[in-house]
Amino acid sequence: MAKATTGTPTFASVLVAPAQIGGGEPRAVVAGAKTFIVGPFGSTTVWTSTNGGATFSLAGATGQGGGDSDLTVDEAGNVFVNDLLGTTAASTIPISELNSSGTGFHLVTKIDPTTSVLNHDRAWTVAESATDGPSAAGHLVVTARDVGSSPTEKAWTVDVPTTGPAVVHGPFLVAPATVGAAGPVIALPGHTYLQAYEGTDAAGNVGVFVAKSTDNGVTWHDHPVELTSGTTLFPVVAADAAGNDYVAWSGDNSTAAYDVQVITISSSVNGGTTWSAPAVIDAPRPGPLSSTGLGLVADNAPAIFPWVTARGAGQVDVTYAIGNEAIENPPGLLSPFGGSNLGLPTMTWNLELAQSLNATAAHPTWTTTTVVSGFHQGSICTIGTECLGPQNLGVGNLPTPLDRRDLDFVGSTVDAGGNLVVPYQQDRSILSGTVGDLIFPATDLRAARQVGGQNI
Description:
Helix content is 1%, strand content 44%. It has two domains: 20-44 and 55-179, no CATH class; 230-456, no CATH class. 55% of the residues are buried. It has one helix at 390-393; strands at 10-20, 27-31, 34-39, 45-49, 57-61, 70-73, 79-82, 94-98, 105-110, 120-127, 138-146, 153-160, 167-175, 179-188, 192-200, 206-213, 221-227, 236-239, 245-252, 261-268, 279-280, 297-298, 303-310, 316-323, 328-329, 348-356, 367-377, 413-414, 420-427, 443-452. Strand 15 (192-200) and strand 16 form a beta hairpin. It is an all-beta fold and 456 residues long. A four-stranded antiparallel beta sheet has the order 1-30-29-28, with no helix packed on it. A four-stranded antiparallel beta sheet has the order 2-3-4-5, with no helix packed on it.
């Protein structure tokens, strides 16, 4: 792909796989000349591109139970993925490896092989940083939230030798109770790992935190990013080539004239120990007043699903979804939760890019660009198992309240040239002519790749 350097970023969208059912949260990972897209469509499924994301082919599925999926590539080019569920409903967190042929997977190990219940949630996997050099055994760090009255975030380390069985160590405590949600774990040089989470730290403070390990994922220490009692969705952490770190999240911003989901970012220049004052990177945009307005004040359009990627020093891309309609403030009858959960059928959603080339400056500059227009219509529910809308019950592709089909995030990345790759799900029309679209909430899996304009 030609390196883009200046001007407004432009994107081309390609169909990765049509009519995917029962999954979401696609994530893109670039390793060398290959681009991978992974998602829990049934079992964890992976598609691969060898031409910069211009076309994709199916690499295969793990044959495990899906639930939550992640993909990582180690320094030797080995591709590992995790499911949350095994072949039963138990959260054994199976780890699978892509076969040497590039098609199909084989099971490497299970993180919690003896469990018979759903006692873990939202697993993430990362391989050790390539800059640490080859090790006698491949090293993975796997994290997941323990489910319970006071859920915690835990980590396991996995040694994967070239021959013989893998060895799992742990669990180790990443973050104390109570953890609401944690984003992906990332590997840095020096056997260091970072993971952002929202919840409560060891001192009882509530907010957004980054947990850091400097000993291969065994011991962790948390550092506060923002202390707030507001609602926060999956925070995502990234690091640039100069060692600066960034956390982006979606949450309520009740300190401004609006009280709606916005995208916020904070940076650290000292290894994640202290963080800059959180800043809203894309001012909320007022949309047309909802037709249910009864003289109430129109709030701003909600923004959710942030994902942050970084490359050169201070060079950061943040992608997120933003609606086109204002949410009533106070909430109206059709939006008692506010935000995105009960958006009207007329609500449409775009995928947006906020880009900065000086993200660690006292006053960084952000420019915004639309990556994809209208990938979804209706609500996007962000309250997990409380999203009991028709999409959870499998009733067609009509825009509805409490629509859960897009789940909780869109995992973007940048390629070797600094160009953005954004996997996403596109609503299928109930009028497509396909019988399945009258019954199931299927979506087309697509990828938007940057083909021009400023990159990072």
